[in-house]
Amino acid sequence: MARTLTSIEHQVLPVGSGSNALLPAEAERLAVLARHRPGFCALGHRSVRLAQFVGLVNLGGGRMLEVLPKVGERADAARARGTLLRLLRWAYDLPVFSEGGVGHGLRQRELLDVFVLAYLRALLPLVRAGLARRYRTEEDDLGVMRGRLLLRRQVAAHAMRIDRIACRFDELTPDNAWNQVLKAALLAVKPWARGLASARLWLEMAAAFDDVSPCRDGLALHATLTPDRQVGHYAAALRWAGWILRLLSPDVRAGSGTAPELLFDMNKLFEAAVATRLRKRASALGLQLHVQRSDRHLAHLEGDRGKQFFRLRPDLVLCAGDAVLAVADTKWSRLEMDRVGRLVPGDSHAYQLNAYAAAYPCEEAVLIYPWHDGLGGAHPTSFRLPGAGARKPVLHVVCVDVEDEALPLRAAAAGTSFARLG
């Protein structure tokens, strides 16, 4: 059977013995995983239906399930893989892809191969600059005095010797928790480092970590790390290490029936990528983009304005100082257009933005969807909301081209606040 079973989100996978099917034991592991991560999949009759999560699931026995995002009707694995890598790069600011982009070569490789290579490349600048060193207290019998004298041991063990001195001293060493986590992930990827480039890079990194002790549970140690300025340059490598250990560490879920995974909720990933991209553009224009702002409610108790109910949490709020220019929500779902090229959002999405526009004193509300090939010929679409009093905000429908490295906005109405961020 193939080492990697590639699928697309929302796809139905058969359970059986075919080359493109899940084994019954693998389907059961996915069912257990779904109980720990609601919304990942649902079991049917000899089938498993995937949902909105993408990434990798370790099925055991050297098998991986690769789940890729679906944009539009064409289910092309290379394009879908490129979309996922592009959104990950924006969402997590990962500077490990060649020339800052997702090239053709990466899109053609299996997702696990890309992640392994990305992790090894994230280690490379750390090794070349020298691994971070921390002081560690040591005790040893030395030929010369160093640090503090251990008087009790000296009298008990070396009373008749003048050539040995029992000392306690601080040793500056690369054998610290930060590097131990990185080594744990490095050892975990060894069986999966396929290809000449990955294998060669793995050997180079393994030699650099030779003085670092292996740890039994790298994922648990990773959770205890507290970032500081001295290891700020470790951020990208540590993020990859955490992901790798979640997926590949052999002792993470010992005795558990679930499957180790590295999964991303496409709704949250799309939101994070769009927010990062728009925040950089907003900052360049002197504006502020707030994510998941929750300072407003939809209603207050009749007769008591101090008691508010139904807290609102829009994905994005665009401000100029204290003034709210626009409120927006991202939606990882397929957008349709009518016969004349108008973009038609879902009813529930429009109702949600109407609630936001009622609570926030702004003139614009925005729904943001991924662009796909089926929207060719679409033109900017806006809807006038009822509002309150003299203020009647406009709901704009905007798309983000997730197949472009810059994630540009498409079909944005000219002159609007979000069009300026395009």
Low-confidence stretches: 251-255
Mean pLDDT: 89
Task: Name the structural class.
Answer: alpha+beta
Radius of gyration computed on alpha carbons: 27 Å
Shape: globular
Fraction in beta strands: 25-35%
- How would a crystallographer describe the biggest sheet? 7 strands, mixed
How much helicity do the residues have? 25-40%
Distance between the termini: 45 Å
Q: Can you walk through the features of this model?
A:
The two termini are 45 Å apart. With 422 residues, this protein is of the alpha+beta class. It contains eleven helices and 21 strands.
Kindly list the characteristics that best describe this protein.
422 residues, alpha+beta, 7-stranded mixed beta sheet, 4-stranded mixed beta sheet, 33% helix, globular
Short description:
The protein is of the alpha+beta class. Helix content is 33%, strand content 26%.
Task: Summarize the topology.
Layout: E1 4-8, E2 12-14, H1 24-36, E3 41-44, E4 47-50, E5 53-60, E6 63-68, H2 77-92, H3 104-108, H4 111-129, E7 134-142, E8 148-149, H5 151-158, E9 165-173, H6 177-189, H7 196-208, H8 218-224, H9 235-248, E10 261-265, H10 266-284, E11 288-291, E12 296-301, E13 304-312, E14 316-320, E15 323-330, E16 336-337, E17 343-344, H11 347-359, E18 364-370, E19 381-384, E20 394-400, E21 409-410
Parallel strand pairs: 1-6, 15-18, 18-20
Antiparallel strand pairs: 2-4, 3-4, 5-6, 5-10, 7-9, 8-9, 11-14, 12-13, 14-15, 16-17, 19-20, 20-21
Helix pairs in contact: 2-10, 4-7, 4-9, 6-8, 6-9, 8-9
